[in-house]
Structure formats: C-alpha cells, structure tokens
Amino acid sequence: MPAFAQSIGLPPQNSAAVALLVERLRVEFPVLRGKPKVAIRDLDISIRPGEILGLVGESGAGKTTLARAILNLPPAPGRITAGVVQFDGVDLLRLSEGELQRIRGRDISMVVPNPRGELNPLVPVGVQLASIAQVHLDKDRHSARAMALEMLQAVQIPDPERRMRAYPHELSGGMAQRVVIAIALMCSPRFIISDDATSGLDVTVQAQILELLRHLVRKQSSAMLFITRDIGITAHFCDRVAVIYRGEIMEIAPRESFFLAPRHPYTMLLLAAFLHNPQLRRAWTPPDASVRANVDTEIGCAYTDRCPRARKICQTTKPLLAERISGHFVRCHFPLERE
Amino acid sequence: MPKILDFLKLVVRIAQVRPRFLLGYAIVLVAILAGLMAPLFSAYSPVTADSSHFLQAPSRAHWFGTDAVGMDIFTRTIYAPRIDLTIAVTGTLLSALVGSFIGAFVGYFSAGRGVRVHLSYAVMRAADVLQAFPVFVFAIALVASFGQSIETVVLAIAFVNAPIYLRLMRAQVMAIREMRYVEASLVAGLSDFKTILRHIIPNAMTPVLAQLSINVGWAILLTAGLSFVGAGVRAPTPEWGSMIAMGFQNMVTGQWWPSVFPGLALAVTVFGFSLVGLSIEVFADPIKRRALVRDLEIARRRAPPAAMSGPEGVLTAGEAP
Amino acid sequence: MRIILYIGRRLLFIVPQLLGIVLVSFLLVKSIPGDPAVLMLGPTATPDAIASLHRKLGLDHSLPVQFWIYLKNLAHGDLGTSWQTTRPVLEDLIQRFPATLELVSLGLLLAVLIGVPLGLASAFNERGWLAGIANFYGLGAGSLPDFWLALVLIFIFYTTLQWVPAPLGRIDLTIVPPPPVTGVLTVDALLAGDWQAFRSAAGHLVLPALTLGLINAGPILKMTQSSMEKMLQSDFSRYEVLCGMPRRLVVRHALRNALPSVVTIISVLYGFLIGGAVLVEIVFSWGGAGQYAVQGVLNSDFYPVLGFVLFSAIFSLFVYLVVDLIYFAIDPRISH
C-alpha cells in the first residue's frame, strides 16, 4: 500500500480505485556548470478514476516536465532520478521501452500544446490518426480510417472527410488542437494528460473543447491531469486543484475547499492575479523582494524569497505537505488559518 | 582566480567526453608551432636542392625522404604551414570580416522599407551570381588576372568565401532583429548603425566563428589546389600543394614519399581545423549543446566514488597526494 | 498549374542572373594579362600582323563594344573560338562536357551510396561503433585534398597492384572509341555493343569516380546524419513517441522529413562538382570541360573560360530547378 495514498485518507481497500499514483518523483536537468537543476522535487500525486485534477503554476514551474515524466519521457536533457509512477499496478519508470510503447497513446495519452508543431508536417492528418488505431488496436487500414473519421466527427471538426486529407499546416490552431485531442482519445485511454491544451484558443472554442474533454472523460470514466496556467478554468472544470511551484506541490485540495478557503500564500497571489485585485496582490507580495537572499531550496521552502509571511524557519526547514482539513493539503509553516 | 579554475575544470571535463575536440586543438597547435619553429626541428634548408641525393626513400638522414631535385621533404613539410596557414587564415578572416559586415547590414535592412530594401535585395542577387561561379575556375581566373602572388591567393580566398558569411550573418541578423532588446535599443535612441554594432553583431557571432574555423580548412585546400595546378604559390617555396604536384610523376612511377607526406600533413591540418570548428559549433547549435551536457552528466555519474563529490571531483581526485 | 507558373517565374529570374554571370566573367577574363594575338603568332610576329589579327578578333574595339559583340554572337549560339584548339568553343564544350558529366555523375552516385546509408546508420544508433566510424569519416573525408587522394589511389591500384589502366584519359589509346552519340563513352560503347571499348572506358572511370565518391560522401554523410538527428529530436517525432508509435515508424517519418536537406546537399555538390572536379580531371588527364577551362585561363584563351562558366552556371541552375520540383513532390507545405 503506497504511503501517500494512505496519507490522503484513501481507505486501503480502495487502492484499486487509484488511476495513477506518483510518488517521490524527482526530475533533474544537468547543466554545463555546477549541480543539476531540480525540476521536479520529490513530488506526490494521486488521481482517482473519473476524476479531473487541475495542476496550476507559472511557466517554468515544472508542469510540462511532470506531464512527460509520467510517460517516462522527460524533456531532454532531463532525467528521472527517483520515484515511482504507478499505473495499473506497475511502475512505469521500470518498464522497458517496448512495454511503454504499448501503454503510451493507448492507456495513457497526452494532449499537447502548440499542436501544429507536434503533428508530422508531411503526413496527412487522417493518416496520423489512423496509424494510432493500426498500431494500438490492431485495426486494418480500412477500419482504422473509418475510426479516424469517427473520431474527427466526435471532436466536432467541420467537414471531417476533407480534413482527413489535410496536412497539419492547412489547419487552424483550434482545428489542430481538436485533431490532437482526437488522437489522444482514439483508444479510450484510462488516463489523459492535458498539457495547456486550451491556451491560445478563442474563448468560445476553448469552452467547446473543455466541454468535449469533460464529456469524454465522464463517459469512459477516465482520469485526467489537467495542466494549465489559467487558474480560472480549474474553478469550473476540475474536481481537485493542485498548485505547483518550482517542482513542488504547494497546495492541493478539492475544488470547493481550494477556492473558498485557500491557505497557501502563493495560491493567494495566484488568485489575486486572476481576480485582477491589485490590493490583494500587493498584500501577498513581499515589500522588499530584492532584499531576501536566495534560499537553498534543497533544505528551505522554495517560496521563501517571494513570501510575505516568510520567517527564519522557512529558510532552514522545508515544510511538509500537511493535511489541514480533510483532503486539503498545504506545504507551508504559516498557512492561512480558516475555520 | 576561482573563475579561471572553474573554467579549466569545465574544459577538462569536456575534453574527457569529447576527446576529438582536444585532438583538433592539438593538431592546430602542432601545425602552428611546426611552422614557427621549423628551423629548430631540421638541419636542412627547405629550398636548397641537393642533386646528389635526389629521390631517396625515407631514412634516418631524411625522415620523409628527398624529392626529385634532392630537397629534404620533412623540412619542407614542416616549413609549409608558414605559407599555407598564413594565406588561409588571412584570406578567411578577410572574407569573414567583409562578408559578415555586409551581411549584417543586408539582414538588418531587408525587412524595412525604401531604398535600403532594394539595395539589400541587389546585394543578395550579386551574391547569387558570385556563388553560381565554379569556385575553382573562378579562383584561378582571379589569380591569373591580378597576377600570381601570395596576396592574390589571399584575395581569391576572401572573394570566394565572402558570400558564405554574407548569407550566414544575414540569416542570423534577420532572426535577431525581431528580438526585444533590439527594439529596446532603437527606442532608447541608438542609431541603426550603433544598434547593429553593439547589439546585433555580437549576438550573431557564434555561428560565424564556427564557420571560420571550418573555412580555414577549406582555404588551405584551395591554396594547395591552386598551387597544384601552378596558379598559386610557386616552387621552390615550401607549400604542401606544390610539393604534391612535384611528386606527381614520381607517384605514378612508384616513389610515393614526395607526395604522400605533404598530403598527409595537409589533410591532418585541415582535419584539425574542422574539429576546432565543431567544438565552437556546440555553442551555436542547441541540439549539439544538449548532447554535450547529457554526455557530461553521464560521465559524471560513471566516475568512481572518489570523484563523485560534484563537478570538481575530476580534478580533486587527480590532485590527491 | 501552380508548378508551371512557378517554373516560369524561376526561368524569368535566370536570365538576368546569367547576364550577371557572363558580365562578371567577361570582365574577369579580359583583365587577365596576356595578348592572345601575340601568343597565337609567336614571338617573331610583326606589329602589323598583330594589329591585323587584333582587328580580326575584334580586340581593337572598346570593352563595352566587345561585350556587346560577344552577347550578340551568344544569341546566335556562337561562343567564340579557342585559339588553342582552333575550333569553335561550342563544339569543344559539347565534346568535353559529357566527359565531365559522366565522371561527376558516377562520382556523386558513389558518394550517395556511401554517405546516405552510413549517415542513417549512425543517426539510428548514435552510440554504436558504426556511428563512431561515420563521425570520423564525415569529418575526415572533407579534409582530404582530392588531387592527393587521386594520386594515392593511382599509386595503390595502378602502380602497385596494376588492377586499373594507366591514368591517361578516358579510354586506352589502342582502342577505337565508339561512335559518339551521347558523348558519354561508357554509354556510347554499350549502344554500339562494343564490349572491349566499354571495359576500357569503365576501367578508366573507376579511380577518378572513386576519388570523387570517397571525398564527397563526407558532406552527404554529415548532412544525412545531422538532419536525421534533428528530425528524430523534433517536436513531431517526440509526439509520435508520446503516442506510443513504434520506433521504426517514427524513424520512417523522420526520414521523410530529413529527405529535403539530403537532396539539397546532393544538388549543391552536383552543381559544385562540374567545376570542382577540375583537379581530379587534371590528375587523370580526363580531357573534360573543367580542364579545358583551366588551360584557357593559364593560356589567355578567353572564350573557352567564358563558355565553361556559362555552361556550368546553366547546369547548376538547372539542377537547382529540378531540386525545387522534387521539393514540390515531397513537401506539401511548399506548394502553398
């Protein structure tokens, strides 16, 4: 029984009801001079079937690195140096490349950002879709094509027959995004990672695509890790929300608890920025940011140098991700207290 | 001081995962030193014929043998970098200087409006014309029309290579020009000219530097080729190409040494310069840079426990009493 | 339809470009010191004889007029006359160009056969021993002077092993060459069904073609390797891996994307080698177009040089045009 699942209060007999479990995951990037930079630091996360977990953080916080590390494909030259990614009772980090190949795209799939650069420019969209079905579902060419067409219809691409023959550069951004979603949903995966899938889309298209994703997740009872920079989306789209900062989870809580009673200073700052509330934002920004020394994030709290509540202990002792009320975890020595 | 030490440690670590870079610098250094200190290594004169000892096979007296008129081939081979490297380096520097300077302005102005755009367009088409020429025939014709001398060979090299730098710099500048800091510099009131000099050229230099080293190799080949057909440096001046030409007939009749040794020296030197170019390319090409960082990390992990204490480990392990 | 428009536009651009090339080479060649009239008549010629020859050759006109006359003749297919061979340059070139083309084409074919497989093999497994050899070869081949490698090959395969005929020309002197149809000796011999001539011509072709092949495989190898590596690390390859596509499919798709750069380097080499194989031609007394031009430069024989520059420029431009058409076929983005 994984320690983290226990700690978040899942009853032991329910361990089968965890879709994906990440434990003590650590990803490091070697640099030309000096110690490797830690992009993901001893990170724990679990997601239940049918659940959508939102992951919010600023750029560079490690969101994409986490997403790719779950598939055991950290962005080059990053390396996974410790941890467990448990899916279906097996640790993905210990599988061979061949075994991973059968899981990627079939059981776990990913919706990538900037999809026009991610689709092979010389292969028609329909062929790329169909080859997923051919590889993972053993379909012959004809039925794979039929499936691809069906998928394009499911993501509501107009004139799907024609789009099948189109090359990626002939698609608009929104259309390419739908194609990538179609590819991700092709094999009815049990776990979907959506990495910034809706940024850069028109608001109307964004709403459509979110609705589509939610519908498909619910229908197939899949789990989803929904990565975004936009904390607003998570408020009505996700079941739980996690905040990541410099490769560490700072706060994770059920949606209601997260938005009604946020506890971490960084979360407060994010919400203030989202609400365009300058007063609140000032309250959660330290008055003399430049004075503070760089904190060794290995031993201290990663947020110390930006935190208005920081004290001596924050520099010397890393706070634990501790449960404040049922299911609401905060990594802070001095969280906001609420009753 | 610690900064220099840090840098040296990094150099040692890179040399361990990319020994070929080290080889490149070593070759270039040896070629330069051989040219500079040739008289120390040989008692013979590079240009005096000794008709009583012609076409002698390599021996203890003549390490590389003697040629058809009795000159010592080893001596001539180590004297040759004086001519070959001087011509190649000067020619290449000249072409890089002129080519990249023009290229920077062409690139900077080709996105604007007015006369400058038309001018930069015209320059590009002129470069097209120059590059459409068969390089070698063009170089020979240049040498023929300006008179056969070392300066002309330098000029021919500069002329032939300048369009390469022009294009390279233009492409770089067109990319950099879109960056914020260039806009900032213009908004801050710097003139176009100063913006190019201060902000654009320094940021576009790395690929030019990598090309520079590779081009020195090509320039040596071109110099030797010109001399080989008799349009470059004339015998008896020690020069690899003309030495190979002198041994041409002997090679067919079975005396291999007059041509083989200078050719080997030439090939190894050019090889050295391309290796050096490769080492500079690492800093211009993110893919190669990433591969290097990855290999450094792998090497660090493989190092014995004594050297595991971080990047300094490599040196401290060696310094232990 | 789009393609035809595109070709039309390209051809339209070629005309001023060719004019520029002719102008520059005309000025360059005219500035070569040395008076062809003096060279033709020898040192004993009287000033009168030289002056009348000048008039006959049109050398008494000013430079712009001479250029105008040259252009007018060019329009009629007259490339001038070589005083060395005393034949029209056009005839000389038509005879020699196929020789160069035969050598260069075969050399390049060898280079592709060596370079592309090695480059691919090393890109697939960048830590294997084959990659080590390929890395070394890619760098080393470009460092070798072709004229020297030619001599070394002659020493090994002719002088020592006697496997190939003497490096003198394209066919044994004792063998009657086949009647010229294409000008390419091996092809003509086959057309005439003359096996003896074919064997001799092919034997003479081996070493020079091998020289060019061995050296030019270097840049092809490096380009194949680096563009393949780049494509395998690109976003779309990474995405395919992310989708669980098998390795061979990812590689095949990457290869398709790497193809344009490989085709480009091959075409650039093709254009370059027409003039760039001169030194190899000289070593093997090949009697090709490049050698003809070099002799022209060294002997103040203007028209062969101009004719050669023109021929090779047209050839390069033609190759580039064909390459662009190949791009049309392999990359759907270009026709956009």
> Looking at CATH, which topology of the largest domain in chain A would you report?
Rossmann fold
The counted number of beta strands of chain A is: 12
Question: How is the largest sheet of chain A built, in terms of strand order?
Answer: 6-7-8-3-9-10-12-11
User: What name does the CATH topology of the largest domain in chain B carry?
Assistant: MetI-like fold
How much is the average pLDDT of chain A?
Answer: 85
CATH architecture of the largest domain in chain A: 3-Layer(aba) Sandwich
Write the layout of secondary structure elements.
The complex is a heterotrimer of chains A (339), B (321) and C (336).
Chain A: H1 3-7, E1 20-29, E2 37-47, E3 52-56, H2 63-70, E4 79-87, E5 90-91, H3 97-103, E6 108-111, H4 115-118, H5 125-137, H6 141-154, H7 160-164, H8 173-185, E7 191-195, H9 203-220, E8 223-228, H10 231-237, E9 240-245, E10 248-254, H11 255-260, H12 265-274, H13 278-283, H14 312-316, E11 321-325, E12 328-331
Parallel strand pairs in A: 3-8, 3-9, 6-7, 7-8
Antiparallel strand pairs in A: 1-2, 1-4, 4-5, 9-10, 10-12, 11-12
Helix pairs in contact in A: 5-6, 6-8, 8-9
Chain B: H1 2-17, H2 19-36, H3 38-41, H4 73-109, H5 115-132, H6 135-146, H7 150-176, H8 180-187, H9 192-228, H10 240-253, H11 257-284, H12 286-302, H13 313-319
Helix pairs in contact in B: 1-2, 1-12, 2-4, 2-11, 4-5, 4-7, 4-9, 4-11, 5-7, 6-7, 7-9, 8-9, 9-10, 9-11, 10-11, 11-12
Chain C: H1 2-30, H2 36-41, H3 47-57, H4 63-75, H5 89-124, H6 129-143, H7 146-160, H8 185-192, H9 195-232, H10 235-242, H11 247-276, H12 278-283, H13 289-298, H14 302-330
Helix pairs in contact in C: 1-14, 5-6, 5-9, 5-11, 5-14, 6-9, 7-9, 8-9, 9-11, 11-14, 13-14
Question: How does this model look, in words?
Answer:
The complex is a heterotrimer of chains A (339), B (321) and C (336). With 339 residues, chain A is of the alpha/beta class. Chain A has helices spanning 3-7, 63-70, 97-103, 115-118, 125-137, 141-154, 160-164, 173-185, 203-220, 231-237, 255-260, 265-274, 278-283, 312-316, and strands spanning 20-29, 37-47, 52-56, 79-87, 90-91, 108-111, 191-195, 223-228, 240-245, 248-254, 321-325, 328-331. Chain A has two domains: 3-107 and 189-331, 3-Layer(aba) Sandwich (Rossmann fold), CATH 3.40.50.300; 118-188. In chain A, the strands form two sheets. An eight-stranded mixed beta sheet of chain A has the order 6-7-8-3-9-10-12-11, sandwiched between helices. In chain A, strands 2-1-4-5 form a four-stranded antiparallel beta sheet, with helices on one face. In chain A, strand 1 and strand 2 (37-47) form a beta hairpin. The longest helix of chain B is centred in the N-terminal third of the chain and has 37 residues, at 73-109. Chain B has helices spanning 2-17, 19-36, 38-41, 73-109, 115-132, 135-146, 150-176, 180-187, 192-228, 240-253, 257-284, 286-302, 313-319. Helices cover 76% and strands 0% of the residues of chain C. In chain C, helix 7 packs across helix 9 (195-232). The chains are: A alpha/beta (339), B mainly alpha (321), C mainly alpha (336). Chains in contact: A-B, A-C, B-C. Chains B and C meet through helix 5, helix 6, helix 9, helix 10 and helix 11 of B and helix 1, helix 6, helix 7, helix 11 and helix 12 of C.
